[in-house]
Amino acid sequence: MVKTRFAPSPTGYLHVGGLRTALYSYLFAKKHGGKFLLRIEDTDRERYVADGVANILKSLYWAGIVPDEGVTQETNGKTSEEGKNGPYTQSERLDIYKEYSLKLLETGHAYYCFCTSERLEKLRADQQARKMPTGYDGLCAKLDPAESKQKAESGEKHVMRLKMDKHGETVFNDLIRGEVRFKNELVDDQVLIKSDGFPTYHFAVVVDDHLMGITHIIRGEEWISSVPKHVQLYKYFGWEIPEMAHLPLLLNPDKSKLSKRQGDVAVEDYMKKGYLPEALVNFVAFLGWNPGTEKEMYSLEELIADFDLSHVGKTGGVFNLEKLDWYNKQYIKNLSNAQLVETAKPWLKEAGIYNPEALEKAVDLERERITTLAELPGAIQFVFDLPGYAPELLVWKKSSIEEVRNVLPQLVEFYTNLDDADFTKEKLEEQTKSWITEKGFSVGSVLWPMRVALSGQENSPGPFEIAAVLGKAETTNRLSVGLKKII
């Protein structure tokens, strides 16, 4: 059975690049009837953030990427584990790593290293000065194993290193890049167990992927240079090597590596701004993958059906915020008014706007104009609270304040005499335009001050749409307020 995994570090938030890795891993597993596992790699204790796991889970579940096994989230938001291959958090697996590291020592495939940080820094500087590849020189590999063991057991500070086979090449088939080759002589003896007893990524990832039954590893291209070390470990243990696919980087529009310096990179940032999960997932799916068709709008189920790693490119995907905005606008337009109100409820409540009877009509005014849910409260605020505005705003560019003083009183009288049932967009538009023709007014000289008086804004939806939402009483009241500003 196909089994993929996503194994983030809890360093504070889920990067959009991490979301893409998780998404592709999830899609691949589901496409092949397999399982998707979530493992937490928290062995880097210096960068560990206490609520990092909760933030990762929150972002993944929001996006609809729910693990079948591993670290999961209960309905109450608490973290739990699902599956028989746990623990699924690396800091809880130290005894397992110790067991397998000792096996490498016993077979002569690993050794204790007692080199100080000062020596290693000097070694690196010397190698750079001589324009040599940097890496550990294997000094401690020459120590007598019995002597090394005695020094380690006596408490002398040490790490454990992999004894890398320096002969020949490591050759593997990447599911995206094809055949990849590395000269083993250029691969140094990687640290497996650090001085604090925690494993390095390179050791733990191999042990965990094997014990958890991972068949396909999908991760970022920054890990591709580490594959020879991982392959060597698989060979030393006699384990089957999973299939591997290394995803291209995400890039800024200027083709630099996507980073927080040029904009938001956390999934949580887009959640807070009011991007819909469907939009972000659809957008992220296309950052490297191309289905080979003209279709752009995909549900998660449709992505599962069409996803193919052979359609993932080798070059970096450009994070184009304008395209993400386009996706979000499309998904907002696809919501009914009731769904839009429900989805935007957190932002509406925070802004103090919660009037169920009026909200559905109000959001219909702006649904075509907003890009994110966070923009909605500000966009419809005028419906519930007329903003202050300068009298000059009532004057159309081809009109005059005298003309406004002539038009508005007659418009107030006209609307006062209409029935409540006439306050629909269609009826208002039909009757008002007939009235304008009858009076001999220009359309702009009436509709401009009407729209400004109803919205208090220079830019807003059309006056008939607004009046239909406000109703007769509030429409005539706002027109009267506008009139008072210019008398």
From TrEMBL:
Q: Which residues form the Aminoacyl-tRNA synthetase class I anticodon-binding domain?
A: 339-481
User: What is the protein's name according to its record?
Assistant: Glutamate--tRNA ligase
What processes in GO biological process is this protein linked to? Answer: glutamyl-tRNA aminoacylation
Enzyme class name: ligase
Organism lineage reads as:
Bacteria, Candidatus Magasanikiibacteriota
Q: Which gene encodes it?
A: gltX
Q: What is its EC number?
A: 6.1.1.17
**GO MF annotations in UniProt:** ATP binding; glutamate-tRNA ligase activity; tRNA binding; zinc ion binding
'HIGH' region, short sequence motif: residues: 8-18
Give the protein family.
Belongs to the class-I aminoacyl-tRNA synthetase family. Glutamate--tRNA ligase type 1 subfamily.
InterPro entries for this protein: aa-tRNA-synth_I_cd-bd, aa-tRNA-synth_I_codon-bd_sub2, aa-tRNA-synth_I_CS, aa_tRNA-synth_I_cd-bd_sf, Glu-tRNA-ligase_bac/mito, Glu-tRNA-synth_I_codon-bd_sub1, Glu/Gln-tRNA-synth, Glu/Gln-tRNA-synth_Ib_cat-dom
Q: Which PROSITE patterns match?
A: AA_TRNA_LIGASE_I
Q: Which Pfam families match?
A: Anticodon_2, tRNA-synt_1c
Subunit composition and interactions? Monomer.
What does the protein in this record do?
A: Catalyzes the attachment of glutamate to tRNA(Glu) in a two-step reaction: glutamate is first activated by ATP to form Glu-AMP and then transferred to the acceptor end of tRNA(Glu).
